[in-house]
Amino acid sequence: MQANKTVKSAIVTALSVAMLGSVAAPALAQGMVEQAPATTTAQSADFSDETISAFAAAYIEVVQIGQGMQEELQGAQSAEDQQAIMQAANEEIETAVEGTPGIAVDEYNEILQVAQADDALIERINAALADLQPAMSQ
Question: Over the chain, what is the mean pLDDT?
């Protein structure tokens, strides 16, 4: 039960960070840099290129879910409605990340957390997102 609560909390954190950025990947990454001290560490090397690509694919889905949630929240009539919308979005995010080949929810959250303080990792994520953007526009 505690592990499930931790996963839900991490997903909420991931959604919150996703909501802070804009649709454009570079702008989002810039937002991450502004929120955290600008330090470059060796941590980004701990993630393979394949894992970063999987993160980017999952991240795009998380942002899309978050955007839909924001629209729904604007129409919510009560705090209970908002809670239900956020719960549904959390479940949808968890399913989306779990359904992305090459990454698990815990890896996704770890990358998201490390990226907040790792410029090199942000650059790698931006490159992976840029690689996916042409595929998204087709």
Answer: 76
Quick check: 124 and 44 in contact, CB under 8 A?
yes
Say how far residue 135 (Cα) sits from the centre of its chain.
19
List, as own/partner pairs, every contact residues 5-14 make where C-beta atoms lie below 8 angstroms and the sequence separation is at least 24, other chains included: 7/94, 7/105, 7/106, 8/90, 8/94, 10/105, 10/106, 10/109, 11/90, 11/93, 11/94, 11/97, 11/105, 11/109, 12/86, 12/90, 13/109, 13/112, 13/113, 14/62, 14/93, 14/108, 14/109, 14/112
**pLDDT digits 0-9 by tens, 11-61:** 555 555 554 443 334 434 443 333 444 444 446 668 999 999 999 999 999
CA distance 56 to 25: 10
Kindly report the pTM of this predicted structure. Answer: 0.68
The residues, ordered by sequence, that sit 6+ positions from 47 with a Cβ below 8 Å of its Cβ are 55, 111, 114, 121, 124
- How many C-beta atoms lie closer than 10 Å to residue 68's C-beta? 14
Domain layout of the chain by residue ranges = 2-136
Residue 88, pLDDT > 60, answer: yes
